[in-house]
């Protein structure tokens, strides 16, 4: 496991002092990895435009290659806000509890605020469960992803399947993100992988919300050619976070824009939420204490 954890624990250096309270001259919106940068930029530009109109400053959208880039940007002050996964938020909090504050999360169509890590394989492979994965290659997205690594690595290990490459699985690899995992499985580069979904709606649609839905919308996969082989326990939807050092009126304005988005611009909200959802609703750090504990446990083992 040490090889897999190296990227997970090599995070959290502060890059620059936080912006002092007062007037801002620009606002920097970060977007986590998981799909190509052009798509991430396109689906979040409408949100950036709304922030620019409300604050009267230029808004820049940053799409780092991996989750750690957004984490470091928030810690160092070069990114002001981002929609994060629960584990990437936990890693940021562990590094500096006063760096960011979670303010909103996605509420699913059924009113819940959770999602799942989903294991999947090509249907033609004949793999139907983890019992069929002995001697096979398992793909994970990013070491700072909740559903793409943290939760499945813990739960699959607890179920009795060693995560040490070569023990049960022939190899355990990082693909670089959710979209990359989906493409890798679809192309046969790995035998199975994990990604995230709300678990609602139909499999053939990639469920209602999540990385599979985005892949279907982008025409990357036909879900009828994929089979679900595993599902985690429910995970709290990741938070939209804002740097604590920003002026309070700026934080309030940006939070209100996102909170009202499903009512005022459902098309923009669909892109920000990665699919169908009901609303963006308030959360606090308390919602993520279990994920912080899980991340600390993995780092310390």
UniProtKB/TrEMBL annotation:
<dbReference type="InterPro" id="IPR005770">
    <property type="entry name" value="PhnD"/>
</dbReference>
<comment type="similarity">
    <text>Belongs to the phosphate/phosphite/phosphonate binding protein family.</text>
</comment>
<keyword id="KW-0732">Signal</keyword>
<dbReference type="GO" id="GO:0043190">
    <property type="term" value="C:ATP-binding cassette (ABC) transporter complex"/>
</dbReference>
<dbReference type="GO" id="GO:0015716">
    <property type="term" value="P:organic phosphonate transport"/>
</dbReference>
<feature type="signal peptide">
    <location>
        <begin position="1"/>
        <end position="20"/>
    </location>
</feature>
<dbReference type="InterPro" id="IPR017797">
    <property type="entry name" value="Phosphnate-bd"/>
</dbReference>
<protein>
    <submittedName>
        <fullName>Phosphonate transport system substrate-binding protein</fullName>
    </submittedName>
</protein>
<dbReference type="Pfam" id="PF12974">
    <property type="entry name" value="Phosphonate-bd"/>
</dbReference>
<dbReference type="GO" id="GO:0055085">
    <property type="term" value="P:transmembrane transport"/>
</dbReference>
